TrEMBL record:
Gene3D superfamilies: 3.40.47.10. This is 3-oxoacyl-ACP synthase. InterPro entries: ACP_syn_III_C (IPR013747), ACP_syn_III_N (IPR013751), Thiolase-like (IPR016039). Residues 246-335 form the Beta-ketoacyl-[acyl-carrier-protein] synthase III C-terminal domain. It comes from the Bacteria. Keywords: Acyltransferase, Transferase. It comes from Mycobacterium alsense. It holds the Pfam family ACP_syn_III. One of its GO terms (molecular function) is 3-oxoacyl-[acyl-carrier-protein] synthase activity. One of its GO terms (biological process) is secondary metabolite biosynthetic process.
Amino acid sequence: MSQQSVSLIDVATYLPGEPIGADYYAQFAESDDLRDNLMFRAPRFRHHVGADETAVDMIERAARGLIERHGEDVVAGADVLITHTQAPDLPFYGAGGGVAHRLGMRPSWVLDLHNGGCAVFVLALNIARKLLSSGEGRTALIAVAQNAAGQVFDQPGVRRKAQAAVPGDGAAVGLVTLGDRSPILDVECRTYGEYHGEMTLSPDPPRKWWEPGTGELCIGFTESKITKVLARGNRQVPEVALAVCDRIDLSPKDIDLFVTNQPNRVFLRNWRDALELPKSRHVDTFDECGNLFGAGIPINLDRALSGGQVRAGDVIMMAGFAHAGDFAGAAAVRWGGRA
Protein backbone atom coordinates (compact mmCIF):
# COMPACT_ATOMS: atom_id res chain seq x y z
CA MET A 1 0.00 0.00 0.00
CA SER A 2 1.40 3.40 -0.99
CA GLN A 3 2.15 5.92 1.75
CA GLN A 4 -0.34 8.78 2.08
CA SER A 5 0.84 12.27 1.22
CA VAL A 6 1.28 14.72 4.08
CA SER A 7 1.09 18.48 3.56
CA LEU A 8 2.21 21.62 5.34
CA ILE A 9 -0.84 23.72 4.54
CA ASP A 10 -0.28 26.89 6.54
CA VAL A 11 1.84 28.79 9.07
CA ALA A 12 0.97 31.69 11.35
CA THR A 13 3.25 33.82 13.49
CA TYR A 14 3.56 36.34 16.31
CA LEU A 15 6.17 38.98 17.12
CA PRO A 16 5.97 40.45 20.64
CA GLY A 17 6.00 44.18 21.36
CA GLU A 18 7.35 47.04 19.30
CA PRO A 19 10.65 46.71 17.38
CA ILE A 20 13.73 47.48 19.47
CA GLY A 21 16.46 49.36 17.60
CA ALA A 22 20.21 48.73 17.63
CA ASP A 23 20.73 51.93 19.63
CA TYR A 24 19.14 50.18 22.64
CA TYR A 25 22.17 47.90 22.90
CA ALA A 26 24.65 50.57 21.91
CA GLN A 27 23.97 52.39 25.18
CA PHE A 28 25.06 49.34 27.19
CA ALA A 29 27.97 48.17 25.02
CA GLU A 30 31.29 47.62 26.74
CA SER A 31 34.67 46.49 25.52
CA ASP A 32 34.30 42.92 24.30
CA ASP A 33 36.95 40.77 22.61
CA LEU A 34 34.27 39.56 20.19
CA ARG A 35 32.72 42.97 19.44
CA ASP A 36 33.99 43.04 15.84
CA ASN A 37 33.38 39.36 15.07
CA LEU A 38 31.19 38.75 12.01
CA MET A 39 28.94 36.49 14.12
CA PHE A 40 27.77 39.48 16.16
CA ARG A 41 27.01 42.18 13.61
CA ALA A 42 23.74 43.45 15.05
CA PRO A 43 20.46 43.63 13.13
CA ARG A 44 18.72 46.99 12.87
CA PHE A 45 15.76 45.78 14.94
CA ARG A 46 14.48 42.86 16.99
CA HIS A 47 11.49 42.08 19.26
CA HIS A 48 11.55 41.10 22.93
CA VAL A 49 9.09 38.90 24.80
CA GLY A 50 7.08 40.80 27.41
CA ALA A 51 8.11 40.68 31.07
CA ASP A 52 5.10 38.55 32.02
CA GLU A 53 4.61 36.82 28.66
CA THR A 54 5.02 33.04 28.67
CA ALA A 55 5.92 30.72 25.81
CA VAL A 56 2.34 29.42 25.91
CA ASP A 57 1.06 33.00 25.59
CA MET A 58 3.24 33.54 22.52
CA ILE A 59 2.12 30.31 20.85
CA GLU A 60 -1.54 31.06 21.56
CA ARG A 61 -1.14 34.47 19.90
CA ALA A 62 0.61 32.92 16.91
CA ALA A 63 -2.20 30.37 16.53
CA ARG A 64 -4.81 33.10 15.99
CA GLY A 65 -3.89 33.31 12.32
CA LEU A 66 -4.56 29.60 11.81
CA ILE A 67 -7.82 29.82 13.72
CA GLU A 68 -8.98 32.78 11.61
CA ARG A 69 -8.21 30.98 8.34
CA HIS A 70 -9.15 27.39 9.20
CA GLY A 71 -11.50 27.56 12.17
CA GLU A 72 -11.10 26.84 15.84
CA ASP A 73 -12.16 23.21 15.44
CA VAL A 74 -9.29 22.42 13.06
CA VAL A 75 -6.69 23.61 15.55
CA ALA A 76 -8.41 22.20 18.64
CA GLY A 77 -8.99 18.88 16.88
CA ALA A 78 -5.37 18.23 15.88
CA ASP A 79 -4.28 14.68 16.68
CA VAL A 80 -0.59 15.54 17.14
CA LEU A 81 0.99 18.50 18.94
CA ILE A 82 4.74 19.11 18.61
CA THR A 83 6.30 22.03 20.50
CA HIS A 84 9.69 23.63 21.01
CA THR A 85 10.57 26.42 23.45
CA GLN A 86 13.99 28.04 23.40
CA ALA A 87 13.79 29.09 27.08
CA PRO A 88 11.19 26.88 28.81
CA ASP A 89 8.95 28.68 31.30
CA LEU A 90 9.80 25.98 33.84
CA PRO A 91 13.08 24.01 33.73
CA PHE A 92 11.69 20.49 33.91
CA TYR A 93 9.26 20.30 30.98
CA GLY A 94 8.24 21.98 27.77
CA ALA A 95 5.12 23.85 26.70
CA GLY A 96 3.15 20.94 25.18
CA GLY A 97 0.63 20.43 27.95
CA GLY A 98 0.05 24.15 28.42
CA VAL A 99 -0.43 24.74 24.70
CA ALA A 100 -2.88 21.84 24.43
CA HIS A 101 -4.93 23.21 27.32
CA ARG A 102 -4.88 26.81 26.08
CA LEU A 103 -6.00 25.85 22.55
CA GLY A 104 -8.64 23.40 23.74
CA MET A 105 -6.82 20.40 22.30
CA ARG A 106 -6.98 16.72 23.29
CA PRO A 107 -4.24 15.32 21.05
CA SER A 108 -3.19 11.67 21.07
CA TRP A 109 0.43 12.74 20.76
CA VAL A 110 2.15 15.61 22.60
CA LEU A 111 5.89 15.92 21.97
CA ASP A 112 8.25 18.59 23.33
CA LEU A 113 11.44 18.77 21.24
CA HIS A 114 14.75 20.16 22.47
CA ASN A 115 17.48 18.78 20.22
CA GLY A 116 16.22 20.44 17.03
CA GLY A 117 17.29 23.93 18.08
CA CYS A 118 17.31 26.42 15.20
CA ALA A 119 16.31 23.63 12.75
CA VAL A 120 13.50 22.32 14.94
CA PHE A 121 10.73 23.18 12.46
CA VAL A 122 12.26 20.74 9.97
CA LEU A 123 12.58 18.05 12.63
CA ALA A 124 8.97 18.60 13.69
CA LEU A 125 7.79 18.37 10.07
CA ASN A 126 9.57 15.04 9.74
CA ILE A 127 7.97 13.68 12.91
CA ALA A 128 4.51 14.94 11.93
CA ARG A 129 4.88 13.40 8.47
CA LYS A 130 5.89 10.03 9.92
CA LEU A 131 3.07 9.95 12.48
CA LEU A 132 0.28 11.03 10.14
CA SER A 133 1.35 8.79 7.26
CA SER A 134 1.48 5.79 9.61
CA GLY A 135 -2.14 6.25 10.70
CA GLU A 136 -1.70 8.18 13.97
CA GLY A 137 -4.11 10.92 12.97
CA ARG A 138 -5.10 13.37 10.26
CA THR A 139 -3.79 16.69 11.58
CA ALA A 140 -0.69 17.92 13.43
CA LEU A 141 0.12 21.28 14.96
CA ILE A 142 3.75 22.42 15.22
CA ALA A 143 4.36 25.25 17.71
CA VAL A 144 7.70 27.02 18.22
CA ALA A 145 8.51 29.81 20.70
CA GLN A 146 11.78 31.76 20.70
CA ASN A 147 11.80 33.77 23.93
CA ALA A 148 15.46 33.93 24.96
CA ALA A 149 16.24 37.42 23.62
CA GLY A 150 14.20 39.38 26.14
CA GLN A 151 14.79 36.97 29.01
CA VAL A 152 18.38 35.72 28.72
CA PHE A 153 20.18 38.17 26.44
CA ASP A 154 18.64 41.26 28.00
CA GLN A 155 19.91 40.57 31.52
CA PRO A 156 21.77 43.68 32.76
CA GLY A 157 25.16 41.96 32.67
CA VAL A 158 24.62 40.04 29.43
CA ARG A 159 23.30 42.94 27.34
CA ARG A 160 26.71 44.59 27.57
CA LYS A 161 28.17 41.74 25.49
CA ALA A 162 28.35 41.65 21.69
CA GLN A 163 26.20 38.48 21.56
CA ALA A 164 23.20 40.20 23.19
CA ALA A 165 22.23 42.48 20.29
CA VAL A 166 21.69 39.66 17.75
CA PRO A 167 18.75 37.53 19.04
CA GLY A 168 15.09 38.45 18.71
CA ASP A 169 11.90 36.84 19.98
CA GLY A 170 8.90 35.43 18.11
CA ALA A 171 6.58 32.45 17.83
CA ALA A 172 5.11 30.40 15.01
CA VAL A 173 2.67 27.57 14.44
CA GLY A 174 2.38 25.27 11.44
CA LEU A 175 -0.58 23.17 10.36
CA VAL A 176 0.18 19.75 8.85
CA THR A 177 -2.51 17.47 7.40
CA LEU A 178 -2.99 14.31 5.41
CA GLY A 179 -3.50 15.03 1.71
CA ASP A 180 -1.60 16.44 -1.25
CA ARG A 181 -2.52 20.12 -1.14
CA SER A 182 1.01 21.27 -0.26
CA PRO A 183 2.89 17.99 -0.03
CA ILE A 184 6.09 17.53 1.95
CA LEU A 185 8.27 16.13 -0.83
CA ASP A 186 11.19 14.94 1.27
CA VAL A 187 13.01 15.59 4.56
CA GLU A 188 16.64 15.08 5.55
CA CYS A 189 17.61 15.12 9.25
CA ARG A 190 21.18 14.53 10.44
CA THR A 191 22.55 14.33 13.97
CA TYR A 192 26.21 15.13 14.61
CA GLY A 193 26.54 13.83 18.15
CA GLU A 194 30.25 14.57 18.33
CA TYR A 195 29.41 18.28 18.58
CA HIS A 196 26.83 17.91 21.33
CA GLY A 197 27.59 20.05 24.36
CA GLU A 198 29.89 22.48 22.58
CA MET A 199 27.39 25.29 23.07
CA THR A 200 27.94 26.08 26.73
CA LEU A 201 26.74 28.52 29.37
CA SER A 202 29.42 30.74 30.82
CA PRO A 203 28.37 32.68 33.94
CA ASP A 204 30.94 34.75 35.82
CA PRO A 205 31.83 33.48 38.38
CA PRO A 206 31.43 29.93 36.99
CA ARG A 207 28.56 27.77 38.27
CA LYS A 208 26.10 25.18 37.03
CA TRP A 209 22.90 26.71 35.68
CA TRP A 210 20.84 25.44 38.60
CA GLU A 211 23.25 26.52 41.35
CA PRO A 212 22.64 29.79 43.24
CA GLY A 213 25.00 32.59 42.39
CA THR A 214 25.42 36.10 41.09
CA GLY A 215 26.76 35.38 37.60
CA GLU A 216 24.15 35.78 34.85
CA LEU A 217 23.78 33.01 32.29
CA CYS A 218 25.16 33.72 28.82
CA ILE A 219 26.58 31.69 25.93
CA GLY A 220 30.27 30.84 26.24
CA PHE A 221 31.62 32.08 22.90
CA THR A 222 35.32 32.13 22.05
CA GLU A 223 37.11 32.87 18.77
CA SER A 224 37.98 29.18 18.43
CA LYS A 225 34.38 28.03 18.98
CA ILE A 226 33.05 30.62 16.54
CA THR A 227 35.47 29.48 13.83
CA LYS A 228 34.31 25.88 14.25
CA VAL A 229 30.62 26.78 14.23
CA LEU A 230 31.02 28.91 11.11
CA ALA A 231 32.74 26.04 9.30
CA ARG A 232 30.10 23.50 10.35
CA GLY A 233 27.11 25.70 9.58
CA ASN A 234 28.50 26.74 6.19
CA ARG A 235 28.87 23.05 5.29
CA GLN A 236 25.87 21.40 6.94
CA VAL A 237 22.98 23.52 5.66
CA PRO A 238 23.87 23.22 1.95
CA GLU A 239 24.60 19.51 2.44
CA VAL A 240 21.15 18.66 3.81
CA ALA A 241 19.42 20.89 1.24
CA LEU A 242 21.34 19.25 -1.60
CA ALA A 243 20.52 15.78 -0.25
CA VAL A 244 16.82 16.61 -0.50
CA CYS A 245 17.27 18.12 -3.97
CA ASP A 246 18.98 14.95 -5.13
CA ARG A 247 16.18 12.68 -3.93
CA ILE A 248 13.38 14.77 -5.46
CA ASP A 249 15.37 15.26 -8.69
CA LEU A 250 15.53 19.03 -8.38
CA SER A 251 18.45 21.23 -9.35
CA PRO A 252 19.24 23.62 -6.48
CA LYS A 253 19.03 26.47 -8.99
CA ASP A 254 15.35 25.57 -9.44
CA ILE A 255 14.42 26.09 -5.78
CA ASP A 256 11.72 28.75 -5.87
CA LEU A 257 12.08 29.86 -2.25
CA PHE A 258 14.91 29.09 0.18
CA VAL A 259 13.99 29.49 3.86
CA THR A 260 16.61 29.05 6.58
CA ASN A 261 17.34 29.92 10.14
CA GLN A 262 19.22 33.21 10.36
CA PRO A 263 22.08 33.36 12.89
CA ASN A 264 23.78 36.23 11.06
CA ARG A 265 24.27 37.81 7.63
CA VAL A 266 27.42 35.75 6.92
CA PHE A 267 25.58 32.43 7.03
CA LEU A 268 22.68 33.77 4.98
CA ARG A 269 25.02 34.93 2.20
CA ASN A 270 27.15 31.78 2.21
CA TRP A 271 24.16 29.42 2.11
CA ARG A 272 22.50 31.03 -0.88
CA ASP A 273 25.87 31.30 -2.66
CA ALA A 274 26.44 27.58 -2.09
CA LEU A 275 23.12 26.79 -3.78
CA GLU A 276 23.68 29.47 -6.46
CA LEU A 277 20.45 31.25 -5.57
CA PRO A 278 19.79 34.97 -5.94
CA LYS A 279 18.99 36.95 -2.81
CA SER A 280 15.43 37.43 -4.09
CA ARG A 281 14.75 33.71 -3.60
CA HIS A 282 16.19 33.50 -0.08
CA VAL A 283 13.81 35.11 2.36
CA ASP A 284 15.11 36.46 5.65
CA THR A 285 13.96 38.92 8.28
CA PHE A 286 17.31 39.38 9.99
CA ASP A 287 17.35 43.16 9.98
CA GLU A 288 13.75 43.36 11.22
CA CYS A 289 13.81 40.49 13.72
CA GLY A 290 17.40 39.36 14.38
CA ASN A 291 18.29 35.74 15.06
CA LEU A 292 14.95 34.04 15.71
CA PHE A 293 16.49 30.64 16.51
CA GLY A 294 13.92 27.85 15.99
CA ALA A 295 11.15 30.29 15.05
CA GLY A 296 13.18 31.72 12.17
CA ILE A 297 12.16 29.24 9.47
CA PRO A 298 8.37 29.40 10.01
CA ILE A 299 8.36 33.19 10.60
CA ASN A 300 10.30 33.75 7.38
CA LEU A 301 8.01 31.36 5.52
CA ASP A 302 4.94 33.21 6.77
CA ARG A 303 6.51 36.52 5.71
CA ALA A 304 7.08 35.17 2.19
CA LEU A 305 3.58 33.72 1.91
CA SER A 306 1.91 36.88 3.20
CA GLY A 307 4.07 39.02 0.91
CA GLY A 308 3.11 37.12 -2.23
CA GLN A 309 6.59 35.71 -2.86
CA VAL A 310 5.26 32.16 -3.32
CA ARG A 311 2.93 30.90 -6.02
CA ALA A 312 1.01 27.64 -6.22
CA GLY A 313 3.35 24.97 -7.57
CA ASP A 314 6.53 26.56 -6.21
CA VAL A 315 9.03 24.36 -4.38
CA ILE A 316 10.00 25.71 -0.96
CA MET A 317 13.24 24.44 0.56
CA MET A 318 13.57 24.88 4.33
CA ALA A 319 16.96 24.21 5.93
CA GLY A 320 18.89 24.98 9.09
CA PHE A 321 21.40 23.81 11.66
CA ALA A 322 21.30 23.82 15.45
CA HIS A 323 23.48 24.86 18.38
CA ALA A 324 27.20 24.36 17.62
CA GLY A 325 26.37 22.03 14.73
CA ASP A 326 24.97 18.94 16.45
CA PHE A 327 21.86 18.79 14.22
CA ALA A 328 20.89 19.89 10.72
CA GLY A 329 17.82 19.34 8.59
CA ALA A 330 16.12 20.28 5.34
CA ALA A 331 12.58 19.80 4.02
CA ALA A 332 11.04 20.50 0.62
CA VAL A 333 7.37 21.38 0.14
CA ARG A 334 5.47 21.96 -3.10
CA TRP A 335 3.26 24.87 -2.16
CA GLY A 336 -0.41 24.62 -3.10
CA GLY A 337 -1.63 27.98 -1.86
CA ARG A 338 -3.40 29.12 1.26
CA ALA A 339 -7.05 28.21 1.64
